[in-house]
Design goal:
about 350 residues, alpha/beta, Dihydrodipicolinate Reductase, domain 2, 2 domains, six-stranded parallel beta sheet, 12 helices, about 25% strand
């Protein structure tokens, strides 16, 4: 039974609570931590209520004190993005396994430090790209691995959402360069991760255009990226927080010489198009078996992601979304910011963009 602690009890933390409840046979929450004590208390009570348990969940406002006093096996980090690296490095260097929300860091340098710290201290580092565990995405990945598409031509990630000013005013760190980044880094990184995971191979260049059109924030509320892979295939990203009046879609589309697949739904959880020359499964048959939409764009993936991390610890293997995987989508976005700032495509070989600061 692994002992877990949650650091950061804001918007996404209920998914961490849910994942631990759903993995109750192998993991147990022993502490919550937030600089706002009431939030830590709320998450502890939420967990105890769902578990129908009176077991104590310790409450902290200082994560370092929490680490020293209760010594958890695993911490999950769901704070503002700009604090991910600092907290993760402290925990990793204390010999504690880490699950960190996306993005894992806001610079290549910090992300690489996290990966090295996990390796040095022989602990596991997992990044919350939970949509990789969606059945629809797993099916698509198997088609990629089975070469059912043949030569890949292009893939597109579309994240057409609405985030009004109330969303940014609710948590003033959102949309800032210091702690967040814009739509690409916050809202689009999950689908960008999936795009690069499916298209595979090394990246040649990244070119981007971004703008801040409607939201009073430092960073972008719209971004477009073109990724040229060394295979010759092209990835296209369209991401926005400006769709009126509400979220429109999040889709991932992959196109090859022998196949076309489109995954949509609220959280890229439904197969919308499935056409392959090999005829191994008909589109009609695939479309019959569709998952229900989740309660939010966060999807159903945290539970299997936590399960995979638990198994990785027990089996002494890397989790599916290790630090080395988690850095990939983040680096594409950092390269996109660099491209926007310089007005030219960024050559990806030996790419290092050490700060998200665009000011």
């Amino acid at each position: 039974m692994l002992k877990f602690a949650i650091i950061g009890c804001g918007r996404i933390s209920y998914k961490h609570v849910e994942a631990l409840v759903n993995n109750k046979a192998e993991g147990k929450l022993i502490a919550t931590c937030d600089v706002v004590e009431e939030k830590a208390i709320e998450k502890a009570n939420e967990y105890k209520s769902k578990m129908n348990s009176s077991d104590e969940v310790h409450i902290y406002t200082d994560y370092k004190k929490m680490i020293e006093e209760i010594k958890p096996d695993v911490v999950t980090i769901a704070t503002e993005s700009g604090y991910h690296a600092e907290i993760a490095l402290y925990c990793l260097n204390k010999g504690i396994h880490v699950i960190v929300e996306k993005p894992m860091a806001l610079s290549t340098e910090d992300a690489e430090k996290m990966i090295k710290a996990a390796d040095k201290n022989k602990v596991k580092l997992c990044v919350c790209h939970q949509n990789r565990f969606n059945p629809s995405i797993q099916k698509l990945r198997k088609a990629i691995e089975g070469n059912r598409f043949g030569k890949l031509v292009n893939g597109t990630a579309r994240i057409l959402w609405n985030r009004n000013m109330g969303y940014y005013e609710q948590a003033p760190w959102r949309g800032t360069w210091e702690l967040d980044g814009g739509t690409l880094m916050n809202q689009c990184i999950h689908n960008i991760d999936l795009l690069q995971w499916m298209m595979g191979g090394e990246i040649e260049t990244v070119y981007a255009q971004t703008g801040t059109f409607l939201r009073d924030i430092e960073a972008e509320d719209f971004g477009a990226i073109i990724v040229r892979f060394k295979t010759g295939a092209i990835g296209i990203v369209e991401g926005t927080a400006c769709v009126y009046p509400k979220n429109l879609e999040e889709t991932l589309s992959i196109f090859g010489e022998n196949g076309t697949a489109v995954i949509g739904g609220l959280a890229v959880n439904k197969v919308e198009t499935w056409r392959f020359a090999d005829g191994l499964d008909s589109e009609e048959e695939v479309l019959k078996h569709q998952a229900e939409d989740p309660d939010s764009v966060y999807g159903f993936g945290h539970t299997p992601l936590f399960k995979d991390m638990i198994d990785a610890i027990n089996e002494d293997r890397q989790p599916l979304v290790s630090g080395k995987e988690g850095i990939k989508g983040m680096n594409i976005i950092l390269a996109a910011y660099k491209s926007q700032k310089e007005g030219i495509p960024v050559k990806y070989e030996n790419f290092r963009f050490r700060t998200i600061d665009m000011k």
